[in-house]
Specification:
The structure holds 2 protein chains of 2 kinds. Chain A has helices at about 15-25, 40-50, 85-95, 105-110, 140-155, and strands spanning about 1-5, 35, 55-60, 75-80, 120-125, 165-170. Chain A is of the alpha/beta class. Chain A has a domain at about 55-130 and about 135-180: Rossmann fold (3-Layer(aba) Sandwich), CATH 3.40.50. Chain A has a 6-stranded mixed sheet, with helices on one face. In chain A, helix 1 (about 15-25) links the parallel strand 1 and strand 2 (about 35). In chain A, helix 3 (about 85-95) crosses helix 4. In chain B, a hairpin with a 2-residue loop joins strand 17 and strand 18. In chain B, helix 10 (about 210-230) packs antiparallel against helix 11 (about 250-260). The longest helix of chain B is centred in the last third of the chain and has 31 residues, at about 465-495.
Chain lengths: ~180, ~625
C-alpha cells in the first residue's frame, strides 16, 4: 500500500495529495494499492481492518517541515511500533474523528488498533515553510521523479538499498524533538 | 412582538418598523471589564484558596478553545470565566471576490465533521440570493444526507468526546464515592442495552477500551457508508450544489442508504437508554449536579430538513417554509418560544467585536431586509471581518470568536435546541414517526432487532450539562426517523418519475443579490449570510454554533453561554488538596455544548486576502 497524507492547498505541504492521482497512474505491480489516507485515521483503520489479506507493507508519503533540510530533501523512517500513554491516544482519536489530518495520529491510532501487520515506512519530503497555494515550487517539482522512485522501490520490497533507516516509535513520537 | 431590546416594533398589520424618536437606536453600553479583574486580583492576593484554573485545550478536538476561570476552592464556586477561541477562522476573507459557486466547496472545509451542513447552508444562501428552487427529490435527498451526517456526529460526541467524562476511569478519579453506589444501582433500561448496573455502563464508557466507545467508532462507519451514497465522500461532499444535489438517485441508492439507516433504530433505543440511566443516576445521587453547566434555556436554532412541497428558497416565503421544516426554527428565551419565523430570527442577529481580535467596521449597507424589517449596523449583512491580532487581556480583548446576540441576548446553540424548539413550538407538520406535545417529543422507533418502541424526550426543568447530553442522545432516533420519513418520500418520488435532483441556474453578471442560508450543524445553529455583487461574492459571513456558544463577553458585560454555564457550576469533585483538583465539573459543563473549535477557528490571512499560516497563540495560561 502506498498512501498519501497531507492537507490540500498548502503549496509544498500538499505535495502528497497532489501526487496521489499521478501515483495511481503508475505502472506498479498489481499487488500494490495506492490510496489517499487523508480521510481520517479512524476511517483508515476501519478500512485496513476490513482488508483480507492485510497489507504486508505500508508506505506513507508525507511532507513535514523539519530543521536543517533543503526543500525536496527526503528521509525514510521505519515505524517501530510502541504507543504513547492512553490519554494521548484518546487525544489522537478525538482529533482523528473530528477531521484533523495528521501522520502521527494515523500511525498511533493504527498501532493501537493493530492494523500495521508488518512493515510501515514514512517517506517524508521537506516542504519548506508553509504557504498557501495549489502549486509546488520548482525545487519540489524537480524532486518528484526521485520521490516516485523511492516509493516504488520501497513498496516493491527494495528497502535494503537505502541502508540503515531512521526510526519512529509511538511511545516517543509526541516528544517535542520527534513530532512529525 | 418578539423584540424586547432591539428598537423594532410592529404595526397592526404586523409590519416591522424602527421605533421613532430614538437618537441612536442601535446604541449600546460598553462596560469596563477591568473593574471585575481588579476585584479578582485583590481576592487572589488575599486568599490562597482562590486561584486561576486554565484549561487548554478543552475540547478533545483540535485544541483551539482555551478556557480561563477563577475558582474558589474553599467555597467550591467559580468566580469568573473567559472563553477564548485561540485561532482565527478566515473563511469570510477567503470567500470574498470568488464565484458564489465556489462557496459550498470552500465553506465545507470550515469543519472536519460537519462539512455537509456548511455546503448545504451555503447552497441555501445562494438559492435565496438567486431565487433557485430545487426539485422535490433534490430537497429530500439533501434532508437524508444531513440527517445521516448527524448520525455520525451524535455518537461521536456522546461516546468519544463527552462520554469519557462519565466513565468509570474518570468518575473513580474525581468522585470515587460514586463508584460503589454505581455498582449497587440497577440500570433501569437493561431491556434495551443489556447492562445490569450503572457501573457496568460506566466501565464500557472508558475511552479506547470500553465496548460503548468502540461501538460508537463502528457506528460512525455505518453513518459514513450511508452518507457517501449521496454525498460521494465524507466529510466534504462533492454533490451538494445550489439548486439541489449533483448525483443521480435510484432505488439502488435508497436501498444502500436504508440498509445502514435501520441500524440506528436499535442504536437510538440503546443510546437513549444508556444516557437516561447514567444521567438519572448522577442527578439522583446528588441533586446539585442539576446546577452543573446550568443556564436559562435561551437558545437559537435555524431549523432543518425542508418539506419538498414548501421550500422554494425565497426570502419572501422563508417564514412559511421555515415553519414547515421537520425541525422548527426559532428563538427560546428562558424556555419560552419567542418566534419561529426566520425573518425575525435573521433581523434580531447582531455580532459584536469589543472583546474579540477584530476591528469594528464602519457603515451600514442594509438598513432593512427586503420586507422592510429594520436591521442593525451589527447585522451579518452589514458586517465586515477585519482581523486585528493584539494583546490578550481579560480586561479587553481575548478571543478570535465574536459575540453574536439575538435581541441583544447571547444565545446557546445545540442539536438539543432543535428538539427543544420543535417540541415546545408544536409548529412542525404532522409526521408518521414524531409527535410534539408542547412539553416533550414522542419518537416512534420502528422495530429492527429490538421491538418497536415509543421514546419520549421531555423538556427538562433545569437546562444543564446532563440535559444537553441527554437530549443529544435522543437526537439519534430523531435524526434517524426524519431520514426514514424522507427516505419514504424519495421512494415515492422516484416511483412517480420525479427523478430530477437539481435546478439549473445562472449567476447574474451584474447587480446585487443577497441571501442567507439557515440550516443546523450537528451541534446546532448555522447561518451563512451572502452578498453577491456583479457575479462575485462581496461579503460572506458565517455564524456557527460554536461562534454562539464560545462567545466572549458582550460589550455590556453579559457572559457568553460557556462562560455563563461555567459560572453557575458548583464544584462537586472530591479532592484533598487544591493540587489534586482536576476540574471535571467545569469540563463536563463546557463539553456538554460539544465545543468544536475547528468550526469557529481556522486559518489566518496575513497581510493578504489569502490563506497563509496557522499562526496562533494557543495557551491561555499567564494571560493578564
Amino acid at each position: 500500500m502506498i498512501g498519501t497524507v497531507g492537507y490540500h492547498i498548502l503549496g509544498n505541504h500538499s505535495m502528497p495529495p497532489m501526487l496521489y492521482s499521478h501515483l495511481q497512474e503508475l505502472d506498479l505491480p498489481s499487488y500494490v494499492k495506492v490510496d489517499e489516507l487523508n480521510w481520517g485515521p479512524v476511517a483508515v483503520t476501519q478500512m485496513f481492518q476490513a482488508e483480507d489479506p492485510p497489507f504486508q507493507r505500508v508506505v506513507i508519503l508525507c511532507a513535514i517541515e523539519r530543521e536543517g533540510r533543503e526543500i525536496g530533501e527526503l528521509d525514510i523512517f521505519q515505524w517501530m511500533g510502541g504507543l504513547p500513554d492512553e490519554e494521548q491516544i484518546q487525544a489522537c482519536v478525538g482529533d482523528a474523528a473530528t477531521g484533523v489530518i495528521s501522520v502521527e495520529n494515523l500511525l498511533v491510532i493504527g498501532e493501537y488498533f493493530k492494523i500495521w501487520k508488518d512493515e510501515v515506512y514514512l517517506v517524508d519530503v521537506e516542504p519548506g515553510p508553509e504557504i498557501a497555494g495549489e502549486q509546488l515550487t520548482v525545487g519540489m517539482e524537480e524532486k518528484i521523479p526521485d520521490i516516485i522512485s523511492v516509493l516504488r522501490n520501497i513498496a516493491t520490497g527494495n528497502v535494503a538499498e537505502y541502508g540503515e533507516l531512521k526510526t519512529l516509535q509511538g511511545d516517543l513520537i509526541f516528544e517535542e524533538e520527534n513530532i512529525v | 412582538m418578539c423584540f424586547k431590546n432591539l428598537p423594532i416594533a410592529f404595526d397592526e398589520q404586523g409590519n416591522a418598523y424602527l421605533k421613532e424618536d430614538i437618537a441612536n437606536p442601535y446604541e449600546y453600553k460598553v462596560v469596563d471589564l477591568g473593574v471585575e479583574q481588579d476585584k479578582l486580583k485583590s481576592l487572589m492576593e488575599k486568599n490562597g484558596f482562590i486561584r486561576s484554573v486554565d484549561y487548554d485545550p478543552v475540547t478533545r478536538v483540535a485544541g483551539a478553545l482555551a478556557f480561563h476561570s477563577v475558582v474558589d476552592l474553599k467555597d467550591k464556586k467559580v468566580l469568573s470565566t473567559n472563553s477564548m477561541a485561540t485561532l482565527f477562522r478566515g473563511y469570510e476573507i477567503i470567500l470574498k471576490g470568488r464565484d458564489p459557486r465556489d462557496a459550498a466547496y470552500i465553506s465545507s472545509r470550515a469543519c472536519g465533521v460537519c462539512g455537509g451542513v456548511h455546503a448545504t447552508t451555503s447552497a441555501l444562501a445562494i438559492e435565496m440570493a438567486l431565487g433557485i428552487k430545487p426539485p422535490p427529490l433534490g430537497i429530500v435527498m439533501r434532508n437524508i444526507l444531513l440527517a445521516i451526517e448527524y448520525l455520525y456526529d451524535h455518537p461521536l460526541h456522546l461516546f468519544l468526546l463527552s462520554g469519557p467524562d462519565y466513565s468509570e476511569e474518570l468518575v473513580a478519579a474525581t468522585n470515587p464515592e460514586l463508584i460503589d453506589i454505581a455498582g449497587r444501582t440497577k440500570a433501569k433500561n437493561k431491556d434495551v442495552h443489556g447492562y445490569n448496573t450503572i457501573l457496568d455502563i460506566m466501565k464500557d464508557l472508558n475511552p479506547l477500551k470500553g465496548k460503548l466507545y468502540l461501538e460508537a467508532l463502528s457506528m460512525t462507519r455505518v453513518a459514513r457508508e450511508a452518507y457517501v451514497q449521496i454525498g460521494g465522500k465524507y466529510p466534504h461532499p462533492q454533490s451538494v450544489v445550489p439548486g439541489g444535489i449533483s448525483v443521480t438517485v435510484t432505488m439502488s441508492t435508497l436501498n444502500e442508504v436504508y440498509s445502514r439507516l435501520i441500524k440506528f433504530f436499535d442504536y437510538g433505543q440503546k443510546t437513549t437508554g444508556i444516557w437516561d440511566d447514567i444521567f438519572d443516576f448522577f442527578l439522583e445521587q446528588n441533586p446539585e449536579y442539576s446546577q452543573c453547566g446550568v443556564r436559562p434555556a435561551t437558545m437559537a436554532d435555524t431549523g432543518v430538513w425542508d418539506r419538498p412541497d414548501s421550500y422554494d428558497g425565497t426570502f419572501e416565503n422563508c417564514d412559511k417554509w421555515g415553519n414547515d421544516r421537520w425541525s422548527t426554527p426559532g428563538i427560546l428565551v428562558d424556555g419560552e418560544v419567542v418566534t419561529t419565523n426566520l425573518k425575525e430570527l435573521n433581523a434580531g442577529l447582531e455580532e459584536f467585536v469589543e472583546h474579540s481580535y477584530y476591528e469594528k467596521w464602519d457603515g451600514q449597507t442594509y438598513k432593512t431586509d427586503a420586507n422592510g424589517m429594520p436591521l442593525s449596523p451589527n447585522h451579518p449583512w452589514n458586517k465586515d471581518t477585519i482581523p486585528k491580532p493584539g494583546k490578550q487581556s481579560w480586561r479587553d480583548r481575548y478571543s478570535w470568536d465574536t459575540c453574536p446576540t439575538w435581541d441583544r441576548m447571547p444565545m446557546e446553540a445545540g442539536a438539543y435546541s432543535r428538539m427543544y424548539l420543535t417540541a415546545k413550538a408544536q409548529r412542525a407538520p404532522a409526521s408518521e414517526f414524531m409527535e410534539n406535545t408542547g412539553h416533550s417529543m414522542l419518537l416512534n422507533v420502528p422495530k429492527y432487532n429490538l421491538p418497536a418502541k415509543q421514546l419520549e424526550w421531555k423538556i427538562p426543568e433545569h437546562w444543564n450539562a446532563f440535559e444537553r447530553n441527554r437530549a443529544r442522545a435522543y437526537c439519534i432516533p430523531y435524526s434517524a426517523l426524519v431520514a426514514l420519513e424522507n427516505w419514504k418520500l424519495a421512494q415515492q418520488l422516484i416511483r412517480n418519475g420525479e427523478t430530477a435532483v437539481a435546478t439549473p441556474y445562472d449567476i447574474p453578471k451584474t447587480g446585487t443579490q443577497i441571501g442567507f442560508g439557515a440550516w443546523g450543524a450537528g451541534r446546532g445553529f448555522l447561518t451563512h449570510h451572502l452578498i453577491v455583487e456583479n457575479g462575485l461574492i462581496k461579503n460572506y459571513q458565517i455564524i456557527t454554533p460554536s461562534t454562539l456558544n464560545a462567545a466572549p463577553r458582550a460589550p455590556w458585560g453579559a457572559p457568553g453561554p460557556y462562560e455563563e454555564a461555567v459560572l453557575n457550576t458548583p464544584i462537586l469533585e472530591k479532592y484533598d488538596k487544591p493540587e489534586d483538583y482536576k476540574g471535571i465539573d467545569i469540563l463536563r459543563a463546557i463539553r456538554s455544548f460539544d465545543p468544536c473549535m475547528p468550526c469557529t477557528t481556522h486559518i489566518m490571512a496575513k497581510d493578504s486576502d489569502h490563506v497563509v499560516t496557522r499562526e496562533v497563540t494557543t495557551c491561555a495560561c499567564g494571560i493578564e
